[in-house]
Amino acid sequence: MQSILIRDTTRAQREQIVRQGLAACGSSCEGCNGCDNLGGGRVDAFYQPYIDGEKELWELNAEYRRGLVR
């Protein structure tokens, strides 16, 4: 398995990683209320700090689990 850390990926690769991860259900995220989003906007926007190289995926997911993100 290839590393998904920011230092080991390009922006384009991180965009693809997020797209593939969110497509696990088989649908697009556009207008979706899945993943416990409950109308909270575009789910992929939550991962923008990872795509931009600001935060690792594990950091974002930990914040979500701790309820720091809505």
Can you give keywords for this protein?
single chain, 70 residues, mainly alpha, globular
Describe this structure in words.
- The mean pLDDT is 80.
- The chain is mainly α.
- It has one domain.
- It has helices at residues 11-22, 48-51, 57-65.
- The chain is globular, with a radius of gyration of 12 Å.
Task: Annotate the secondary structure layout.
Layout: H1 11-22, H2 48-51, H3 57-65
Number of strands: 0
Measured on Cα atoms, how large is the radius of gyration? 12 Å
Percent helix range:
25-40%
Number of distinct helices = 3
| Major sheet description | none
Gross geometry: globular
Low-confidence stretches: none
Helix-strand sequence: HHH
What structural class do you assign from the helix and strand content? mainly alpha
